[in-house]
Fold:
Amino acid sequence: MVKVKNLNGTSNRVPLDGSSSWQEWWEKKKKRKFGECSRINCSVKAEVGAHVQKALINDRRWYIVPLCRACNSSKSENGFYVDEKDLEPVNQ
Ligand SMILES: [Zn+2]
Structure:
């Protein structure tokens, strides 16, 4: 698992490849469907492709990760842990 922080001010960003949502974009990249929320210890169905950055290491890339609505709206300053295999880097 990896610690991430939810990025603020990204809700106006749309995928450049024509995907209608970040969920659709993520599912195309990963070649699998959204399942449970990626946050550790949360098993609610993921509904949002959230923009996050890793919190602990020197990696300034942005990633999309599947979260449930509650986890996406909790803007914890301390970050939270997600399953690293669910991170997909955004190159834009
Ligand atoms: Zn959740």
Remarks:
- The helical segments are 22-30, 69-73.
